[in-house]
């Protein structure tokens, strides 16, 4: 079972003679927990600093729901590593660009440059003021409500059906400057990648690497500044749900990257196939409200009305992705020829719609048939393969090591429990697998891994080689782990 009560931990702040008491409620997200730790360290959580938490024996422990309660006599030790280098580094790069532009500026440009410098100075001042203010502020209370998209029409006025991309004021957005070692690059290509070690800004840098490594920037003449703006718009269009958030988006994309590299199918795919896979995984849960299709339909939300109860969420995710791509500022496909764009759009929509588990049986049956005489040159076979890879990636957490995967199970259960609580409060039908009084973590995992995940991955392995050791074995190990956990709770 996921922890149902608040865990209290005592933390000594390194370098300060202070002992902080932190309560971790069961329903908060890992980001919210981290935010409280940043507050305890009296630094803002967007400072770019890294928090290192160790137990009394000096072992590093991850900040999240896995933390055990402790006593004042044996507190954890919290160290702050780094400073505001990341934010100030970006500002410095921007100033460098302004200076470089000034060398060749025409008189007409000078006023623009002056305005740019004044605006950057102002941002730096605001950043400093913000850091001071945030450091002094108490941690925000954890409040979770359904997003406006999932609110019943009868209760709240209808909101805009499709979120408009944010306006980006990033004339001086810097080019990718992350430098990754060959070892790190190889790690990002592996299915055992640990997402918890990276914050959201770093994940944007890793996304840039994936675009580059797949050869997409060169092949589709993607402007790197537009790519960065696109990724920021994507990040901002994911909601802060316990599970369906930007980190899940990254995990799904990274697992797709891990699967196509491990199976070496990356060598058989065309550039357009890789583009379809990456944009599908990036967009597949955009603006997810944290409530399932069943809730949307039962509560007759705006999304259910707009999409006539047909995969309301998946239709919405695809629509938000193409809304972002329709904005010239974030359209990274501007240099893609029309016929290629149309083909990509058709298949991205198919891949995103394929993530609706209500379509699972249908897609499994179609791919099983195709796998009997699979042909990479057959457009329908290829399209089904891309859908299967996206589906595998979407439910792939158990491919990762247990310490990476298990917090995701707890996040998903928290999102389910939240939905079930709201459904009960609104008098709507509830599903037993979302009910905090009926579900256990081990029971849920044994069923899901055994009946959904393993059959899907085994079917995929009929076409994708080299799946057994690095991809399917960890899933089987995870099944054993949860079966043993289930036995112990009986
Ligand atoms: Zn997903």
UniProtKB/TrEMBL annotation:
Residues 168-489 form the PDEase domain. Keywords: cGMP, Hydrolase, Metal-binding. Gene3D superfamilies: 3'5'-cyclic nucleotide phosphodiesterase, catalytic domain (1.10.1300.10). Zn(2+) 1 binds at residues 248, 284-285, 394. Binds 2 divalent metal cations per subunit. Site 1 may preferentially bind zinc ions, while site 2 has a preference for magnesium and/or manganese ions. SUPFAM superfamilies: HD-domain/PDEase-like (SSF109604). Its cofactor is a divalent metal cation. InterPro entries: HD/PDEase_dom, PDEase, PDEase_catalytic_dom, PDEase_catalytic_dom_sf, PDEase_CS. GO terms for biological process: signal transduction. The active site is at residue 244. Belongs to the cyclic nucleotide phosphodiesterase family. This is Phosphodiesterase.
């Amino acid at each position: 079972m996921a922890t149902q009560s608040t865990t209290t931990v005592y933390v000594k702040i390194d370098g300060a003679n202070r002992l902080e008491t932190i309560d971790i409620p069961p329903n908060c997200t890992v980001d919210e927990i981290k935010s409280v730790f940043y507050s305890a360290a009296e630094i803002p959580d967007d400072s770019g600093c890294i928090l290192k938490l160790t137990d009394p024996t000096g072992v590093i422990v991850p900040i999240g729901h896995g933390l055990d309660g402790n006593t004042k006599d044996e507190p954890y030790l919290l160290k702050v590593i780094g400073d505001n280098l990341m934010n100030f580094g970006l500002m410095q790069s921007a100033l460098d660009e302004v200076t470089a532009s000034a060398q060749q500026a025409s008189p007409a440009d000078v006023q623009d440059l002056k305005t740019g410098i004044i605006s950057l100075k102002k941002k730096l001042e605001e950043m400093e003021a913000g850091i001071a203010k945030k450091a002094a502020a108490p941690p925000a209370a954890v409040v979770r409500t359904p997003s406006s998209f999932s609110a019943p029409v009868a209760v709240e006025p209808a909101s805009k059906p499709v979120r408009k991309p944010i306006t980006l004021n990033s004339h001086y957005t810097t080019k990718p400057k992350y430098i990754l070692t060959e070892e790190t690059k190889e790690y990002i290509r592996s299915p055992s990648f640990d997402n918890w070690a990276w914050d959201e800004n770093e994940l944007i840098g890793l996304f840039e690497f994936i675009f580059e490594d797949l050869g997409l920037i060169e092949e589709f003449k993607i402007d790197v500044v537009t790519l960065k703006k696109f990724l920021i718009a994507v990040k901002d269009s994911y909601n802060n749900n316990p599970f369906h958030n930007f980190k899940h988006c990254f995990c799904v994309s990274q697992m797709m990257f891990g699967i196509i590299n491990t199976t070496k199918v990356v060598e058989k795919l065309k550039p357009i196939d890789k583009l379809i896979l990456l944009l599908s995984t990036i967009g597949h849960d955009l603006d997810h409200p944290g409530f399932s299709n069943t809730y949307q339909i039962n509560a007759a939300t705006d999304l259910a009305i707009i999409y006539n109860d047909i995969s309301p969420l998946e239709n919405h995710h695809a629509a938000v992705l193409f809304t972002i791509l329709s904005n010239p500022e974030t359209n990274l496909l501007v240099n893609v020829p029309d016929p290629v764009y149309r083909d990509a759009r058709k298949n991205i929509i198919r891949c995103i719609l394929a993530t609706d588990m209500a379509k699972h049986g249908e897609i499994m049956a179609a791919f099983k048939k195709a796998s009997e005489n699979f042909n990479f040159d057959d457009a329908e076979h290829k399209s089904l393969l891309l859908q299967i890879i996206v589906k595998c990636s979407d439910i792939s957490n158990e491919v990762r090591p247990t310490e990476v995967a298990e917090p995701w199970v707890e996040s998903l259960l928290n999102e389910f429990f939240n939905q079930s609580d709201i459904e009960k409060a609104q008098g709507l039908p509830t599903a037993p697998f979302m009910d905090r009084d009926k579900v256990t973590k081990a029971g849920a995992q044994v069923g899901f891994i055994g009946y959904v995940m393993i059959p899907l991955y085994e079917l995929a392995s009929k076409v994708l080689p080299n799946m057994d050791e690095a991809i399917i074995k960890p899933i089987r190990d995870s099944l054993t782990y949860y079966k043993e956990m289930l036995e112990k709770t009986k």
